[in-house]
Specification:
It contains four helices and no strands. With 139 residues, the protein is an all-alpha fold. It has a single domain, classed as Ferritin. It is elongated and about 50 Å long. Bound molecules: fe (ii) ion (2 copies). One fe (ii) ion (FE2) binds next to helix 3 and helix 4.
Length: 139
């Protein structure tokens, strides 16, 4: 497995994080009704988490000699003021993130950079936690 594949996959993850930052910040600002009390802070926290994840992934790409992407993943961010739709779209995003990081973890098992493996694994677990949390909120 070459470093180029790893850089490519990390850049894919970075694109999704940049998109997640925008999506969650948008939903935090737009959530209406009684659910705003809980979901404004929750979406804000997710936006902040995505910013932190993007930072880790960006630095991993640079460490590998790659150039981090500056554009978000083009998958549309759907505007809504409906809490249920926002949560469903959040679940979609977290499912995608977990899938991308799950693939990167497999590549990193071969790669032999323990620090990078551990930092990406932490992100992977965070995505799994968000995914499970959203699944339970929507249950
Ligand atoms: Fe993330
Ligand atoms: Fe996430």
């Amino acid at each position: 497995m070459g470093e180029n594949t790893l850089i490519e996959r990390l850049n894919e993850a970075l694109g999704w994080e940049l998109r997640a930052m925008n999506m969650y910040a948008h939903y935090a600002a737009n959530i209406q009704g009684i659910h705003r009390l809980q979901l404004d802070p929750m979406f804000n926290e997710e936006a902040t988490e995505s910013l932190a994840h993007a930072d880790v992934v960006r630095r991993a790409i640079v460490k590998l000699g790659g150039i981090p992407v500056t554009e978000r993943n083009p998958h549309p961010i759907v505007h809504s003021t409906e809490f249920k739709e926002m949560l469903e779209l959040s679940l979609e995003t977290e499912t995608k993130a977990a899938e991308v990081y799950g693939g990167i973890i497999v590549l990193l098992e071969e790669f032999g950079d323990q620090e990078m493996y551990d930092s990406i694994e932490q992100i992977y677990f965070a995505e799994l936690r968000s995914l499970e949390n959203l699944r339970l909120i929507l249950a």
